[in-house]
Amino acid sequence: MKKSLISIRDFSKEEILHVLEVAKEFEKNRVQNILEGKVIACIFFEPSTRTRLSFETAVNRLGAKVIGFSDATNTSVSKGETLKDTIKMVSNYVDMIIMRHPLEGSSRYASEVASVPVVNAGDGANQHPSQTLLDLYSIMQTQGHLDGLTINMVGDLKYGRTTHSLLQAMSHFSPNFIFTAPDELKMPVEYKDFLKEKGIPYKETLSLEEHLNDCDILYMTRVQQERFTDPMEYERVKDVYRLEASMLSGVKPNMKVLHPLPRVNEIDQDVDETPYAYYFKQAENGLYVRMSIIAYLLGYR
Amino acid sequence: MVSALENGTVLDHIPAGNVFKVLEILGLMGEKNRITIGINLDSKYLGKKGIIKIEDKFFRDDELNKLAIIAPKATVNIIRDFRVVEKKKLTMPEEIEGIARCMNPKCITNHQPVKTRFKTIDNGNEISLLCHYCEKITDVKGLY
Ligand SMILES: [Zn+2]
């Protein structure tokens, strides 16, 4: 049976932990030609250089070859070919499809049409499970474990898919949450209901200063202009939080600042020099986690 | 109303605006048997209701339950020899396919020829639909 990764909910707790363990192995030794002779398609219907380079590097490091496109403008898709036909055609050539598409649910649909495993590299504002797994990996590597941690999520908690997926994934590990957001960008009710159902405690605050000193992970996010329908609302909230090195004097020694990148103004450059900054290493971790996801879905780990 | 039915199925308490939708979901648009339709009849519960009588036709429960999403209060009467031999209500299926549309404008099902698929979520007083594809909630209020 082929297995795809479309939503973080597709992986059980055991599978999540397995993929993270395998990622450790790839971090120790990043050249492993276990997929020699395989061909993997990276088809990006909208550009995302960061994610594409990370996936393509992962494929290359595993010894497989990459085909694909980085933008749908000059392909048969721009001539009106349906997603179904594109996926059917590509599936005939390759052993796996890694895809990014601006429409939500496109990857789930592709996984139903494809004869090979599909990895969702982002479907609009919906899911981006490799990002979630690299966030979990970063949390595990910095804290030594995943259980019972206090995670402070900051910024756009309304539209930000990374925080929603991370919340779902962390729910396996008895966390405590702090949600730091302005009123316009608060964590949606359905996610808070989900936590209540699972008996997971959370606090909400408007102030970035309030819970800096009692969290293990400070998960900062960017306020993304493209998610807003009302430009006035965006202007009101875009620079609402700004983390500076001087604010970190009382934090826990194990505390780490994570950010899915790219950042804008929410983390000052002077934080980069503190022992709490982890976001660049977090991005690097994406490589090992993506190698692990690919190897696992193809049955090699 | 009109002539009495000797054998067949009577669907009552359908929201007036959804009568044709019901015919469509039951695959009756090209039906040869006689069908009598009443629309905008007075109803205590619905204000205006619709009723459909289909001669010599009987449906499986899973066919009828597909209607629950657009006619949750509908009742089904099975008629044999001019008599109601069975009365039933609809039960909400766990999943519905190809009926409602996803409210998310960025959902793949609104852009490509993809059959919609939803999980039904019943929170006690209201039904909502969780899209199998985009994972967003669609309100059923817009449907009837
Ligand atoms: Zn949808």
Write down how many β-strands of chain B occur, each being a DSSP E stretch of 2 or more residues.
9
Helix and strand succession of chain B?
EHEEHEEEEEE
Oligomer: heterodimer
Identify the CATH class of the largest domain in chain A: Alpha Beta
Write the layout of secondary structure elements.
The complex is a heterodimer of chains A (301) and B (144).
Chain A: H1 13-28, E1 39-44, H2 49-61, E2 65-69, H3 83-91, E3 96-101, H4 106-113, E4 118-123, H5 129-143, E5 150-154, H6 161-170, E6 176-180, H7 189-198, E7 202-205, E8 217-220, H8 231-237, E9 256-258, H9 279-297
Parallel strand pairs in A: 1-2, 1-3, 3-4, 5-6, 5-8, 6-7, 8-9
Chain B: E1 8-15, H1 19-25, E2 35-43, E3 47-55, H2 61-65, E4 75-80, E5 83-89, E6 95-97, E7 117-122, E8 127-131, E9 137-139
The structure holds zinc ion.
Q: What report would you give on this structure?
A:
- The complex is a heterodimer of chains A (301) and B (144).
- Chain A is of the alpha/beta class and 301 residues long.
- Chain A has 2 domains: 8-127 and 286-297, Rossmann fold (3-Layer(aba) Sandwich), CATH 3.40.50.1370; 130-283, Aspartate/ornithine carbamoyltransferase (Rossmann fold), CATH 3.40.50.1370.
- Chain A is built from 9 helices and 9 strands.
- In chain A, the strands form 2 sheets. A 5-stranded parallel beta sheet of chain A has the order 7-6-5-8-9, covered by helices on one side. In chain A, strands 2-1-3-4 form a 4-stranded parallel beta sheet, sandwiched between helices.
- In chain A, helix 2 (49-61) links the parallel strand 1 and strand 2.
- In chain A, helix 1 packs across helix 9 (279-297) and helix 2 crosses helix 9.
- The longest helix of chain A has 19 residues, at 279-297.
- Chain A starts with 12 loop residues before the first helix and ends with a helix.
- The model of chain A has no long low-confidence stretch (mean pLDDT 95).
- Chain B has helices at residues 19-25, 61-65, and strands spanning 8-15, 35-43, 47-55, 75-80, 83-89, 95-97, 117-122, 127-131, 137-139.
- Chain B is elongated, with a radius of gyration of 16 Å.
- Chain B has 2 domains: 8-89, Aspartate carbamoyltransferase regulatory subunit, N-terminal domain (Alpha-Beta Plaits), CATH 3.30.70.140; 95-143, Aspartate carbamoyltransferase regulatory subunit, C-terminal domain (SH3 type barrels, Roll).
- Chain B is mostly beta strands and 144 residues long.
- Chain B is 8% helix and 39% strand.
- The model of chain B has no long low-confidence stretch (mean pLDDT 90).
- In chain B, the strands form 2 sheets. Chain B has a 5-stranded antiparallel beta sheet with strand order 2-3-1-4-5, with no helix packed on it. Chain B has a 4-stranded antiparallel beta sheet with strand order 6-7-8-9, with no helix packed on it.
- Chain B has 2 helices and 9 strands.
- The chains are: A alpha/beta (301), B mainly beta (144).
- Chains A and B meet through helix 4 of A and loops of B.
- The structure holds zinc ion.
- Zinc ion is lined by residues 102, 104, 107, 109, 131, 133-134, 136 of chain B.
